[in-house]
Design a protein that fits this description.
This protein is of the alpha/beta class. Helix content is 44%, strand content 7%. It has 20 helices and seven strands. A five-stranded parallel sheet has the order 4-3-2-5-6, sandwiched between helices. It is globular and about 70 Å long. It binds flavin-adenine dinucleotide. This is Cryptochrome DASH.
Length: 499
């Protein structure tokens, strides 16, 4: 596998590009922890004769969530981030660079580094949500006229500049957005970076101090937590593991061929790609996935609904990113982008705690919530079901659920998380999205023999398979009744839903 990964990286590198830049630039890594198809890194390299790569471990990411004060970054995502940094450092070293990791606010650290190495420009990937925008503003202010801050677009599959409309005029219906980009835009090819990116600035150690310092979890005020043995998939942070996963899922196991049929699963490593944690940290680019799926795999293996459907999902990811530009902070507000004021929300602590800890008495909810806490991951199907249960059956303020997800998810991304939650809560930008997921129906369709629930709640294994979703005895009492409980009935709301 290591050879396959290495040869794939080579394929996405160029033998030599011309470099005419002078002086020193700084590459400020943010949610783009990769080398392959990293345009900001390419620009930092091309515009200078030496580059200083930097990552700032911002203490604000390890504070608490906005309203309900959960740890903003849970231990598992923090561990994933640290692994990603170690891997990036290793891969940069292979290309003649290194990664300087410093703990502190970027607006304090970057001006010191600009001064120390005499950098003319800081390159970084452009972000779209308010916390990140504030940091960009603060960095600009703190470096003053000493250096420029150049922000480079790099998070989406379709480039911002290639959209057939401005983000202010983004369609409010996903299908309209998708059809418009599919017919009028094209996905740009991956940017090929040279195999050698060095040198680092002269006498770097003297100028910036210890280069080998990498923080550990306790430096971040967190305690290590083991990924549990029940987890079907061990997520390791970093570009190497991301490409390894793509090689395995597309090429070795050939799972891409059947993705559309398996993608609604909940149990196991291979029902879906599991790319999301690496996409969220930027260890893999969506354009790289596009090229592998839509160009290489379709040419060498097969082109079918499944090879298209991965792109369909990546367009959802793009869509939520662009929506964050259109709607700004309203994606974080209770009334959402559509300013829905008619709903009344509860913040009942007992109900919320039962949901959060997986003790509601509904095995399908409890199994999913236990999986989330234990592994930092939950399937897309599971996320939709637990979201619907929290907001529709319990009537709880959807932001409590969204913030718990923010704390736990390995793949937490503000746009995808809050975008999906606003849709699930019926306050999203698209008025047609109103989703009720009937638990009995979801259980019947997606876990008919109870193997998922009994995996995460082993005591259910003793029950006959048809009793695992509604144990009569020996399990917790149901904490609330369901709003609609006839499993045979198709509810208008969930039937309208795209999946
Ligand atoms: C309430 C809720 C909260 C969510 N929070 C997040 C989040 O914080 N971060 C996140 O990346 N995804 C989030 N999702 C979307 C989706 O559940 C995950 O992207 C998906 O489960 C990740 O698994 P996968 O990589 O195997 O996905 P696959 O099915 O293999 O899909 C491939 C990729 O497409 C993208 N994608 C798929 N579905 C969606 C979607 N509905 N919205 C946006 N992108 C999508 C992801 O990048 C994913 O990696 C959320 C969904 C819901 C319902």
């Amino acid at each position: 596998m290591a050879d396959a990964v290495e040869s794939m990286i080579q394929r996405y590198s160029s033998a030599g590009s011309s470099r005419n830049g002078k002086g020193v630039s700084i590459m400020w890594f943010r949610n783009d922890l990769r080398i392959v198809d990293n345009e900001a890194l390419f620009k930092a390299w091309a515009s200078s004769s030496s580059v200083l790569p930097v990552y700032c471990v911002d203490p604000r990411h390890f504070g608490t969530t906005h309203y309900f004060k959960f740890p903003k970054t849970g231990e598992l995502r923090a561990q994933f981030l640290l692994e990603s940094l170690v891997d990036l450092k290793k891969n940069l070293k292979k290309r003649g660079l290194d990664l300087v990791i410093r703990s502190g606010n970027p607006e304090f650290i970057l001006p010191l580094l600009v001064e120390a190495v005499g950098a003319h420009t800081i390159y970084a990937q452009e972000e779209t949500c308010s916390e990140e925008l504030q940091v960009e503003k603060a960095v600009k202010k703190s470096i003053g006229t000493k250096a420029k801050l150049e922000l480079v677009w790099g998070t989406t599959m379709y480039h911002l500049n290639d959209l057939p409309f401005t983000t202010a005029r983004l369609p409010d219906v996903y299908t309209q957005f998708r059809k418009a980009v599919e017919s009028s835009s094209r996905v740009r090819p991956c940017l090929k970076l040279p195999q050698t990116l060095g040198p680092l600035p002269d006498s770097l150690g003297e100028k910036v101090g210890d280069l080998d310092k990498v923080p550990n979890l306790s430096d971040l005020g967190l305690r290590p937590r083991e990924q549990v043995s029940l987890a079907a998939m061990q997520f390791t942070g970093g570009e190497t593991a991301a490409i390894q996963r793509l090689c395995e899922y597309f090429w070795t196991k050939n799972c891409l061929r059947n993705y559309k049929e398996t993608r609604n699963g909940m149990l196991g490593a291979d029902y879906s790609t599991k790319f999301s944690p690496w996409l969220a940290s930027g260890s893999i680019s969506p354009r790289f996935i596009y090229e592998e799926a839509s160009i290489k795999y379709e040419k060498e293996r097969t082109a079918n609904n499944s090879t298209y459907w991965v792109l369909f999902e990546l367009i959802w990811r793009d869509y939520f990113r662009f929506l964050s530009m259109k709607y700004g902070n309203s994606i974080f507000h209770l009334e959402g982008p559509r300013k829905v004021r008619t709903k009344s929300w509860s913040q009942d602590k007992t109900l919320f705690e039962a949901w959060r800890t997986g003790t509601t008495g509904y095995p399908l909810i409890d199994a999913n919530m236990r999986e989330l806490y234990a592994t930092g991951f939950m399937s897309n199907r599971g996320r939709q079901i637990v979201c619907s249960f929290l907001v529709r059956d319990m009537g709880i303020d959807w932001r409590m659920g969204a913030e718990w997800f923010e704390s736990c998810l390995l793949d937490y991304d503000p746009c995808s998380n809050y975008g999906n939650w606003t849709y699930g809560a019926g306050v999203g930008n698209d008025p047609r999205e109103d989703r009720y997921f009937s638990i009995p129906k979801q259980a019947q369709t997606y876990d008919p023999d109870g193997s998922y629930v009994s995996h995460w709640i082993p005591q259910l294994q003793e029950l006959p398979t048809d009793a695992r979703h509604s144990p009569k005895v020996g399990y917790l009492k149901k904490i609330v009744p369901l709003r609609f409980s006839n499993p045979g009935r198709t509810y208008k709301t969930s039937a309208n839903f795209r999946k």
